[in-house]
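Database export, one record per block. Field names are fixed; values are copied verbatim from the stored entry.
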Amino acid sequence: MKILNLYAGIGGNRKLWSDEHEITSIECDPATIEVYKHFFPNDEVILADAHLFLIENYQNYDFIWSSPPCPTHTRFNFLTNNIPEKAKKYPDMKLYEEIIYLKHFYKTGFWVVENVISYYDPLIEPTLSDNHYFWSNFEIPFFEKTSRAIRNNAKNFDYKQQRNGFNLESFAITKEQKRKMINNCVLPELGKAILDSAINEATGNN
């Protein structure tokens, strides 16, 4: 498949995808791109605005994965009472812009948009798998929720690295950057299962 991987991060969802695919990944942070390239040297990686790249290039791909930024949607931020007023933001509607656009205009392949479980009732009904919402035009496999301790406890950083298959010790970036990169990863096994589901539907092997 020719795959477009948007808001790629360091490639949690991409970790177990086969290198037989032609993968283009879009990321806006140069430090994150350097880490991604280290783990996936065969991918084409582009420093760009993923939201803009999608609407200009979606028709060129067989499978699209998009993980728009989640901080303005997450329940964690909403439930934290001490957020300064100046830090509060409206939910970023790029999430729903992409879902609506792909649903109505992308007819030649398979797409999935991933995000966190939101503090509000989703405006478009998603599929829940692991600790994520997914919107797609194919069936999303179900994974049980990851435990709260693994998700939220900073002391489990080394475990999270091991669990996601990344070791960031050698990179000259801050601990906070490393923690953010790891926390933003989709479980690689889930990423693989989702791509496999799209491939099975494309090939009629359901």
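Remark 1: Strands lie at 2-6, 22-27, 44-47, 63-66, 110-116, 127-129, 132-136.
Remark 2: The radius of gyration is 17 Å.
End of record.
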